[in-house]
Amino acid sequence: MSIEVTARHMNAPGAKDHAQQQCEKLVELFPRIEHIHMILNIEKHRHEAEVVVQAKNHIRVEAHETEDDMIAAIDGAVGRAERQLRKLRDKVQDHRGRRTDDRVDEVDTVV
User: Fold this and answer.
1) Which of 29, 61, 73, 82 is most buried, with most CB under 10 Å away?
2) Strands, E, within the chain: which ranges?
3) Residue 49 lies in a domain
4) Predicted structure pTM score
5) Is the pLDDT assigned to residue 28 strictly greater than 90?
C-alpha cells in the first residue's frame, strides 16, 4: 500500500502532511486500498485537491475539490472519495436478497 502526494505550483509541507494524514485515515477505514495518489494544485486564488484511489477488484475512485483554503480542499476531496468507496462497499455487501418464507404464505392462501 502506497500513498503519494504531489504538490504543483506550491511548496507547503503543512498541506502535504495533512494530506498524508487524511489518506492514512482513509486506508484505516477501507483496508482493500492498494494505492492513493493525492494531487495538490494552486492556480491564482483557487486551491485544488484531487484524490485518485486504486483498490482491489479493479476499483478506481476519483474525487476533486476546489476551495479558497488548501486544508478545506483536501478534506472535501477525501470526504467525497470516502463516500464513493462506502457506496461501492455497501453495494457489494448488500447484493444478497433477504430470505423470506413467501412459500408458506402462498400455501396458506391457496387452501
Assistant:
1) 73
2) 2-8, 33-43, 46-55, 59-67
3) yes
4) 0.79
5) yes
